[in-house]
Amino acid sequence: MYLLVHENREYLRAPGDELQTDLGVLTVPEDAEPGDTVETHLGEPFVVRRLRGPDLFNHLERTGAPMMPRDIGLIVGHTGAAAGDRVLDAGTGTGVLSAYLGRMRAEVTTYERDPEFADVARENMRLAGVEEYVDVRAGDVTEELDALGEEGQEPFDLLTLDTGDAADVVARAPDLLRSGGYVAVYSPFVENSRAAVEAAREAGLSEVETFETIQRRMDFEDRGSRPSTAGVGHTGYLVFARYE
């Protein structure tokens, strides 16, 4: 899949697909490469661009509010998620986090309770080109913990949780993680974060930390420079813990 970009417009298309807009019609060449310029029948140019992580956030089909790139960046940076890691994810939703991790070549098993949302997430993984790395399963992860943590199963390097009952999974982290593995819990509500913290402490996890994610854009104008007044930029809370 490629992005076709014309000024502030972006369209997601595959080679061979047709694009119809008020700027004209074009068919994406089968041999299109990033950086190429293609034109509509009216002569309007579109630049071919390769998908990157932020493009997934902007263009994947949404089944709810996806995790923001700023939060994903904190998860990756704090846990050191890397190629070859085994990740257990719960609360797939749109699948943006799973897609990011899949593009890093981590092996992700992600659970989504709503079967229709899971179908959308599978299609999003196809669009993101990470089908071989991300296994989207329809179901409640809390009902699969015994099987996932039983003796003989390969442990996970990272648990990423975006569910209201994340604390129940955190409590089972010692059964699921390999030594040195991390838990990362995202929640828009501080109550859920507190429950996750308490569960991590009771489970004997270490390095238990909680952060609120706030990001402010800077405005640089002729009069001077200052943080934008457009909003505080709060997205949610992230709880991290580690299994020794």
TrEMBL record:
Q: Which CDD domains match?
A: AdoMet_MTases
The tRNA (adenine(58)-N(1))-methyltransferase catalytic subunit TRM61 C-terminal domain sits at 69-219
Q: Name one GO molecular function term.
A: tRNA (adenine(58)-N1)-methyltransferase activity
Record keywords: Methyltransferase, S-adenosyl-L-methionine, Transferase, tRNA processing
Tell me the Gene Ontology biological-process terms attached to this UniProt entry: tRNA methylation
Spell out the coiled coil positions from the record.
Answer: none
The record's listing under Pfam families reads: GCD14 (PF08704)
| GO cellular component labels | tRNA (m1A) methyltransferase complex
Q: What is this protein called?
A: tRNA(1-methyladenosine) methyltransferase-like methyltransferase
Q: From what organism does this protein derive?
A: Halogeometricum pallidum JCM 14848
